Amino acid sequence: MRKLFATNLIFLLLLNVVVKPLWIFAIDRNVQIVLGAQEYGFYFALFNFSLLFNFLLDLGITNFNNREISYNPQLISQQFANVLVIKLVLALVYFMVTLGIGVSLGFGKRHIVLLAVLTLNQFLASLLLFIRSNLNGLHLFKADSVLSVMDKAIVIVLVSLLLWGNLKIQLTVEVFALSQTLAYVVAIFIAIWLLQGKYSIAIYREFDRITIVTLIKKGLPFAALVLLMTLYSRLDTVMVERLCPEGAVSAGIYAQAFRLFDAFNMYSYLFAALMLPIFSRMMSNQEDITELLNFSFNLILVPVVTVAVPSMIYNRPVMSVLYHEHIDVSSKALVLLMGSFVFVALSYLFGTALTAKGKIWLLCRVSLGAVIVSLVSMLILIPRFGVIGAAMANLLANAIASLLQAFFFIRSQGSAISKTSVLKLSLYIVIYTALGLIIQHTVGNNLTGFIATLASSLLVVFGLRIFSFRAIVNFARGI
After folding, report:
1. Cβ pair 370, 394 in contact under 8 A
2. 103: nearest Cα among 112, 93, 94
3. How far is CA 448 from CA 9, 213, 306, 452, in A?
4. pLDDT tens track for 258-288
5. For residues 101 and 97, what is the distance between their CA atoms, to the nearest angstrom?
6. Alpha-carbon gap, residue 406 to 425, rounded angstroms
């Protein structure tokens, strides 16, 4: 199982390392540069507003479906068509709620038009994720991996033509959003074709009302969890625009730092997406997850710390490479968001393990506490510190959520994470940070120092024997 997990993780990461950075840094970043901080901030705030209520699109059914298909693959033929009906009904509810709240908040005509396109995109993304959850639950990880980048690959081509293709179509936030709509539609058709090719499913069949009601009831805890996690992880991106005097501009500045935070979180998210079905299958078969969990602990947190530490130390040079305006503020926000990045990775690890164990209501209570802390801290910090206050609130909420998840998992299964792994990781953080500061003092606060600090991580990792050359060679041979 460890080999299955590692080989598919490598394949998934290779695809995403090629496609996602192109999307984030070549496309999304250049769109912001072309449109400007205010115009992109307008898009960024509405995009994150559309995320706040997307739990209504699914009510947790996709996560529940992933876990259930992992336990019993034969359920796919019974559940697929029924879930499609649920998602279409929920889409109508989502549209009405999101647009209705937008109108009640005083959004103008242009806000509502763009929000309508973004809500459509959220529905299409949710539909694609549901189809992928079936492939994931069936352990068809390579097909799911291809689909995880399919929509981004398509939109990269479309927006590249708009940016550099000398077309007579002017790039606006509305056109940018519509290009994503087209990409999702194409990816969904490809996803259905792949699923039909791998597993015979009936998209059109007689719907079972009892099955539909049962699915909704079982999915509700997952829905509550998705809502709460979305609130404490994304509410800051909306509140910046609402609470800062220069709303759209501040949202655009925050987007500069948040883009890196979001990009780096790709690794942790992909890791968790692969862990959930594997952990669920192992637990359903009463298999011991200790070895795989310790392997995952090092494999997720060491790379995260390796990226986070130099990004925090050399925050200004990093932001200066990507942007030319508002560097002072966005670089300070980056320091806090990179700290939050480490806690998010910890949350993906232990939150996924708790999800696989079925501790959904426990995760809901933890997330509710994080939402309350996030909201209170934002109302206090954003009016006083602006963009920096939003980053502070993000760090505080993610720290509380991840540490509580780790505490409850270790309390229920204390022997799963070895003390040696925790000690080595703690030493790695301390020594690696000290080395980074020494290099900064010696080389200077520049990209050379950033690269030298990254390189020094190898010395610390192998010096502490977190990973060994022999283990890497044996692992490679096994693959």
Report:
1. no
2. 112
3. 30, 59, 16, 6
4. 888 888 888 888 777 777 777 877 777 777 7
5. 6
6. 15
